Amino acid sequence: MRQPDDMEEINSTVKIYYQSLLEILGEKKARAIFSQMGLSNPEVNIQELKIPLPNILEGLAAALSNEYGELACQGLLIRMGRASISFFRHHYKSIAALGNIENRLQPIERRFLFSLTALANLVTRETRIEIEVIQENTRQFLWKMFLNEKKDKKGNLSPYYYFGVLEEFCFWLDARKNYQLSYLADKRKKVVEIAIEIRPQE
């Protein structure tokens, strides 16, 4: 059973989606997009949600795609993901703790594997999307998402949000490096892979 602190965090998931969308589109548009899903009040208590929490991001992706088109939706979701990191750090103690000195003093390969795994565990807990983090070598990692067959009928749009999350997350972990992220999707297998390569600044 979830404890009160856990319930506060799960409430925060919806708030993070709204806060990041608000930052990009402004209040009027952000509320309109949420209203399309029956979420006229973004501060709604988790028990009052009409849509299961794991489906809210997919619903947001569908609403953005209907409003702006699929290509623009991909870009908006990436920007939402980037904007989300400051809110993740504010709402989730487990994410904020990754910025402590103990974690930052770890060798980069150990720090990134530990931190990416912590983020993956949080996302899996809140969305029920299975995520595997694979360390291919000391500078290359793979974020692998196994999507539910019944979701993302419009072409796996929601993982673009996590592409943006990972871009900003990596930069927050170490701003002294450059990062090359690649998005790979296999619609037949409902698998999305985001490859992350850490590069030294030139």
Summarize this, please?
By secondary structure, this protein is an alpha+beta fold. It has helices spanning 4-25, 27-35, 56-68, 70-91, 93-96, 101-104, 108-127, 159-173, and strands at 130-137, 140-146, 177-186, 191-200.
Rg on CA atoms, Å: 17 Å
Figure out the total of helices: 8
| Known CATH architecture | Alpha-Beta Complex
Counting copies of identical and different chains, the oligomeric state is single chain
The global form is globular
From N to C, what is the helix and strand string?
A: HHHHHHHEEHEE
> Can you list the strand order of the major beta sheet?
1-2-4-3
Which class best fits the helix and strand makeup?
alpha+beta
The proportion of residues forming helix, as a percent range, comes to 40-55%
- By CATH reckoning, the class would read Alpha Beta
Question: Which fold name corresponds to the CATH topology?
Answer: H-NOX domain
Provide the number of structural domains: 1
How far apart are the first and last residues' alpha carbons, in Å? Answer: 50 Å
CATH superfamily membership: H-NOX domain
The strand count comes to 4
Largest sheet: 4 strands, antiparallel
- Output mean pLDDT: 85
Question: What descriptors fit this protein?
Answer:
202 residues, alpha+beta, H-NOX domain, four-stranded antiparallel β-sheet, 8 helices, 4 strands, 54% helix, disordered N terminus
